[in-house]
Amino acid sequence: MSILSAPNTRATAHATDDQLFRSYHRDGEVGAREALVARFLPFARKLALRYSYTDEPIDDLVQVASLGLLNAIDRFEPGRGTKFTSFAAPTILGELKRHFRDKGWALHVPRDLQERALALSRANERLSHDLGRSPTLSELANALGCGVEQVVEASEVAHSYAPASLDAPVSREAEESATLVDLIGREDDRFALAESREVIAGTWRSLSELERQVIALRFVDGLTQREIGERIGYSQMHVSRLLRRSLNRLLASPAMAV
Fold first, then answer.
1. What is the pLDDT of residues 143-157, one digit of tens each?
2. Which domains does the chain have, with CATH numbers?
3. Whole-model pTM over 0.85
4. Which of 82, 143, 153, 167 has its CA at a distance of 20 to 30 angstroms from the CA of residue 3?
C-alpha cells in the first residue's frame, strides 16, 4: 500500500503512537507501520516545506522527506522514552540535506559551504520580511554568526546550485536574442603564440652565449650598440654584426615565417 494512502481503521485511528510502534516492531504488523506513516506524514511535509524557497519541486521534497520518515519509523525504539518527532526530525532533515548535496547542486561544492548557502537563503528571506528591505551583508553575517567574507562566499556559492546555461538567451524581450556563449566565446590566439614561443625558444638555445647576451642587452636592457661594445669588450661594428647574425637566425625560424 502506498505511504500516502495508509489504512484508517477504527483500531489504528484510536491506537496510541506507542501501541502502533509496538505492534509494528514486536509483531511485524505492516498495517501499524502504514498507520504511523499516515499519522506523521504531515510532520514530514512540514519539514520539507522549510526548503520551499529553493527551485526543487515541492512534491520531490515531500517524497524525500517521506523516505526519511520511513527510515525513522523502522529505526525508532519506543521503549527508550524518546519522543518520536524528536527522533525523526534529524533523520528527515538529513535525507533532505543529502538530496540537495548529491542531486541538487550542478557543481561540486563542499558540504559546509552548501549548508551555509542554504542558511543564507533562509536568513535573507526572514530578514527581508522583518525589515521590509533587503538586509545588508553585516546584518546577514550577524544572523548567521559568521564574517562578512563568509557571507559573500556563500552568496557566490549559491550560484553553483543552478548555473545559467550557455545556450540561454541574454534578453527575454527580444525574439532572437544572442546567447551567453555568443558573447563570452572567442577564438583564443594564444595557442598559436605558445607554439611560436616554443619554436623560437629552440632557435634561441642554438645561439651562442655571447649572441644571447648581446640580444638581451639590446632589447631587454635597452643599451645602444656602443654601450654593449663597452660592456662586453667588443667594437660597435662587431656588436652590429653579432646582432644582425643572431636576429637573422631567429627570423629564419618557422615560427617567424609569414
1. 989 888 888 888 877
2. 10-104 (1.10.1740.10), 107-186 (1.10.10.10), 190-256 (1.10.10.10)
3. no
4. 82
